[in-house]
Protein 1
Amino acid sequence: MSNRTVKVKKKKRKQSTTDRIYDSVIFIVLTILLLIVAYPLYFIIISSISDPQAVSAGKVVLYPIGITLKGYQEVFEESSVMRGFVNSIIYTVCGTLINLAVTLPTSYALSREKFSGAKVVSIFYIITMFVSGGMIPTYLVVNYLHLTDTMWSLILPGALTVYNMIVARTFFKSNISEELYEAAAIDGCGQIRFFFSIALPLSSAILAILVLYYGIGHWNSYFSALLYMKTETKYPLQLVLRSILIQNANALNQSVTTAAAQAALLEKKKLVELMKYSLIIISSIPVMILYPFVQKHFVKGVMIGSVKG
Amino acid sequence: MKKGKNASVTTKKRKGIIGSLRKDWSLWLFVLPGVILTFIFSYVPMYGVQLAFKKYNPKLGIWGSGWVGLTHFTRFFNSPYFETVIKNTLIISAYSLLAGFPIAIILALMLNSFKHKKYRKIIQTVTYAPNFISTVVMCGMLILFLSPSSGAINKVIAYFGGTAINFMAEKSYWRHIYVWSGVWQTMGWNSIVYFAALAGVSPELHEAAICDGASKFQIVRYIDFPSILPTATILLILNCGSIMSVGFEKVFLLQNDLNKGVSEIISTYTYQVGLIDGNISYSTGIGLFNSAVNAVLLIVVNKISDKLSGTSLY
């Protein structure tokens, strides 16, 4: 009897050593991954508040050195950035509202089993997933409608994303039952009233998911603005960022001869580098502030999307 | 009486679209805005695709321009860019898929068998975060870090006695930079689907395996991994379907004259030819070629997926 328990114990211990190795390997690998993902983000934060001299000398590694807010000051003095920020807020808010106004009713209607047009309309949307006119014909249509260089060129062409529509449709299908509507219909409630006063108030989760998906999409997009926006004062933030971060619009190319001027130029160059770090932080702030609160909605959206509706 | 009413209902149903409009007018109203917008911005451009067979003249418009047959296609197939552009597109997307796909699965498996729940939550929150960084900022970060004069990576190289590398100008680095920065940005996010599938694995299976003396690694290998295999297969097949469509946004931002040899892909070439050089119809032709290949791939792949796993897009 005692012999047996010893045997079991032994077996257990043997198991737990391999498991312990497994656990520690996973712990180490995941920690390394965490550092690989987190460090570049952390580096940008500490660099943005460090002395530009120290950053470009490579001294800033683990903590900020010579804390200064010069970079941020520089960003706020750059009128194009502030204008872009305001533009982006306007485009994001208006765009998201229109996205919701189009997507929610569509996906609600398509989620109704009794809707006789559901099949036709679904096929109508699915076709667009397979066939598209492409960049140039779409551009010509937007141009033909005189939407270029207006906010509408950024908002209307993508007013309904089929993927988001399917996510919302799946949600409505499983959360707003036909019986609920039938009960309301007996009391004389039509579809329109049912949608606004019963279905929508019950759908705050999907509302949050759509606002976030669409909103972040608008905030982060630059391509349609690159295609359609011609006037610089109408540029959204991402296009302004592109010219500063990627095209180096501020690269000071003037040729200087005197040593003093050259030193000043070098100083300015370092400040511009610093400004880039601050710019990255400022442009990501709206998303990053929201992120911890909304993470679970995002994840939920992915899960609803993965269940085929 | 009752019977007659029923019959009239069925005839109403058979009336097709008009009957449907009368019966469900409010639901039709719901789908109307989306249908109109999609028609204008997705279907009308499809009509514009005929430009690929025409010589576009802005004065005459799409309809009035003269037909040129397949000229634009033969020109594209014979152009020296054809091979480069197709090759680059395929290499970039195959490389991204090979690098990114297994990593997301491994990450989900590791996270699922990780026992510190709080620490796991932190890892998840952090690894999901880069997904929300905009493409412009992502590329800006890459260019900052890889800058030959002040970039952090070159500082490290210099510290160990190496010479600074101008990463963005070297053709040999470009693909790796593109793909691995993509993996960095999306691995956490892509693991969510698998993590969700793993949450559906019955704990009884785990308990039974533990009773039979399975080690943790064996549980992952023989229970967790097979249980996400169906999800993985579907996603892999779908990803293969979009292998010819690499996103424009990131490639365009990381592109410069020095690395164009490896970074010019179909979509950037379409943009360059159509909107910068102004060859509207030629560019439409290239775009049409690309979307035709995409559509065929997607349909074929979808059929395969349907046969193998009974899952399809439609």
Note: Chain A has 14 helices and no strands.
Protein 2
Amino acid sequence: MKRSRTIRGLAVTTLTVGALVLTACAGSGAGGGEGDDVVLEMYQSGDVNQGNGYAQLADKYFDETGVRVKIIEVPNSDLRTKLRTAAQANDLPALAASGIDPAYKDRLLDLTEISDDAGVIDSLRVPDPDDGKVKALPTTLTSVGMFLNKTLWDQAGVTFPTTLDESWTWDEFVAKGEEVVAKTDAEYGSVMDSSAHRLRALLYEFGSNGVTEQSDGTWELDDAGAEALEYFKGMHDSGFMPASVWAAGDDASATFKSGRVASYMSGVWQITDFQQNITNFDWVSVPLPQQPVRATNYGAASWLVAFDGTGVEQETLDFITWLYSDENYREYCELSGCLPALEGLDVTYAEDADAFDLYNAEIAASGDIAAEQSIQGVLFGYEGKSIDSEPLKDETVRYLSNEQSLEDTVKNINASSTQQYAD
Amino acid sequence: MTITRDKVTPAEPAGVTPRTPWRRKRAFGRYRLAPFLFTVVTAVLFALFFLLPAVLGLSYSMTDYRGWGDAEFIGFANYVALFQDSSFFSALGRTFVYALFSVPVGYCLALGMAVALQSAWSRGKTAARIIFFLPWLVSPIVAGVIWRWMFGESFGFVNFVIAAFGGDSVPWSSNADLSLLVVIMASAWGSAAFNMLLFVAALNNVPQSYYEAASLDGANGWQKFRSITLPSIAPTSLLVILLSTLGQMKEFAMIQALNGGGPGTQNRLIVQYIYETGFARSEIGYASAASMVLLLILLVIAFIQLRIGRRSGSTW
């Protein structure tokens, strides 16, 4: 009798524990605010510096107002999925630095007033074409730029431009880079992040407008763009750039940090990282090469959005107003080492102010097209288009690894872009 | 590892103790309710975490679901599109090539390690056991990263050594076949330890008397291995090949960390393809259809291998 009872008891216990575990799984996650204490959840994804910047400001906000802002770091690749699911489950956070997605485009708070009061720079003030309301604020400004391993260039005795008063073409840049490789123990002349954002800057410099909408509603890459892609492949085929970064996903930043690559085409966000992590050589920010167009690719590092229906809407708006006040926003830029997206805001950087100045000057010198990618992303969101891949990058990778010809690459870029972007 | 060479002695028969009359009374509790209660937990978990997702996947595969919003029923359109999609077939083809090479390599490596550990003449067995077993403790992602560092094209260890001896660096990442070779080696390295354990257990169960008899007949080591060892461990071999084939067809984490399916998309395996369409491009319906096709392929492989096993009379 005793044994049977033990077995039955065991079974019941197992069942109960199992059931409890399952219920615990089901009922997780709390919304924006509950009880007396208001807690604002903010999803964001970025590097350590950006996250720290927000976290420090959140502490300051708590000290001043008693409202806690919880910064939740989400890996960039998961951010969209996470917010989509949250939107469906009606469990959105108070705010997020994420951009606009069709899944929640109708659940955004109006930020027009904050945007205008704070003085968001004109080119990044993007109202919803439907109702003219601004529903996304640029977090900070981000821009593509060129870094050199100064130690190698000095060692090789090769000169390079340092201000926008001077310039160099891509041909000159490649020739000089090759000279550095020949005269030093550098392995490669240059490396570029595997990203459409960086590639677009190259296209703009070749006089291309990138992939744009045509009069018949399709999307196409222009001839100058194709020429730039061919040039880009040439730099890989000649061994000037390492094939493994774009083709096999090697880390471009780590490759540059090895100290054996003469230059690195990346962006302003690297400065803080380099200040901390590059100790074995000197680096310097220089103007981007032009062929013949002077251009970078700039835009919002991310877009801050606030959600409706969280029960803490007013508190959220208060926090954003506070965040975008000159004083606090300046503090954020200084903490995170970012360029401000607000008009006329002077930020004093503790180190490498020259590099930041160069980026600002390069943005000012670039044409309207240079902010296009960033703005377009928001507009697609407003229009309910979900942009889930980057045909420009994906097809270029296949072109670089000899899977398709230039002609097919352009054809595929056009077809995939049209499929995604066209109405 | 303490594996004795003694033959397994059967458990004491239950009939030794005299049957007691009260045994019948508790028959219900012992043989109906308790097994039922135990299986209920498994059944619920199975239904919740396997059956439900499988049914969901199947139903998603017939919709244009994108991960949010409404899903519209579109019948077999996803499957039709899938069978016209050249990148699906190239991913599937590459997966077969990968399995075709990595399964035999992994099998031979695991068997070789097990035989070496069992051999009476080998020395330093304890150290070897630890070294052989270590890779199994490493997560596939970490294994991928380790091998990526070793075979890095620009600044990898192997190319460094080759260069130090005056050779030209080898394009480990930008040549598709070399890149796949690295993945095959890494997967054999990572999975050999587990298969080795299975083989060690099987080798222990081969009766020593066979080897003694063969020795008396003058058989050499290779003859004994071919005619005694291999046939005796056939059921384990089948199990290892089945498990490895299924495992390699589903390879994802390690190759993702090692070369991301590169160069380009030339080494993209089928699960990576599903992941990319499902999560990067948010075509959940389409990716579900691809998953269903993969499930079917895996079922067929398992079925064929089990049939072969049954025909050769081995059971496990």
Note: Chain B touches chain A at residues 22, 26, 29-30, 33-34, 37-38, 40-41, 44-45, 48, 66-69, 148, 152-155, 171, 173-174, 176, 179, 259-260, 262-266, 279-283 (CB under 8 Å).
